[in-house]
């Protein structure tokens, strides 16, 4: 074959490419029209019977040189792309996603913004044990300029024989301390029926890792007008985490803080494995503020400082850590809580790294 003949064939192939392109897009437009008509009739768009008929007709007409399986594969892709064209991409996107809302959501806790570009801290004991215990941490936190105090009143413990928390009594202690020290408080709620009660006592409702897929609890938290801090499940993918947040936002509450708290892996050096890359991924994919709980993700006091540094460096909106006046006698998570002196050191080391409001 001469060079000129080869060139002519190539030109012919180029022309056919453009014809195919034109036809594929023409088909796309027809399918879009079909989609609109189906929507008007309220009919579900994917129709396997119709797809099978089309495929059969195509295969019966195929006289090569492509094999049936090749033709089937190519047309299957065209059908799939057409179906996607019928589905409006915008409407499919989650409400928590940046596709749906490009700007950052700022969560306002007691007048304090979270997610406005600044970085902040949540500290406090694992569990509320007594007024004196919570007040001691509140005093230390306040001295360090921290605005949000944590403390568990309802504790989701691995064993039913472990300390389960003081319940409502614990919430009352938190509220008293919050009022006295001018702090906002966050506490975990484990039962949908307790959400209403919590409104009177806490500024942020925490939903714990073990309840990340407690859908009734998520819906109940979504139905109230109170900020929610949602922790990532022990073995939850980021997609599952975002869908859990979607349960809350879909009920009308967009005041959600996501919290990475480590996931289960085969690594035993730490209590959980801190998935630090979850922070920039969640920041990219969603418009919600993201916190990192360094205590439960590591379970090790010696890692609280380096992991908190990492969280701040990677762009978290804040860090959560557990602080107890006398960790040795704590009723839960004794080994991993900082005492006041350790907390002071920790926060002083971190302060120069904290980003102020943009
Ligand atoms: C907590 O923060 O008190 C707690 C129980 O953490 P998690 O749900 O992440 O285990
Ligand atoms: Mn704890």
UniProtKB/TrEMBL annotation:
Gene3D superfamilies: Aldolase class I, Chorismate mutase
GO BP, one annotated term: chorismate metabolic process
Any Pfam family hit: DAHP_synth_1
Entries under SMART domains matching the protein: CM_2
InterPro entries: Aldolase_TIM (IPR013785), Chorismate_mutase_GmP-bac (IPR010954), Class-I_DAHP_synthase (IPR052899), CM_dom_sf (IPR036979), CM_II_prokaryot (IPR002701), DAHP1/KDSA (IPR006218), DAHP_syn_2 (IPR006268)
SUPFAM superfamilies per UniProt: Aldolase (SSF51569)
Chorismate mutase domain mapped to chain residues: 1-90
Entry EC no(s): 2.5.1.54
A GO MF term: chorismate mutase activity
Keyword tags: Transferase
Top EC group: transferase
PANTHER family for the chain: PHOSPHO-2-DEHYDRO-3-DEOXYHEPTONATE ALDOLASE (PTHR43018), PROTEIN AROA(G) (PTHR43018:SF1)
Protein name (database record): 3-deoxy-7-phosphoheptulonate synthase
Gene symbol of the encoding locus: aroF
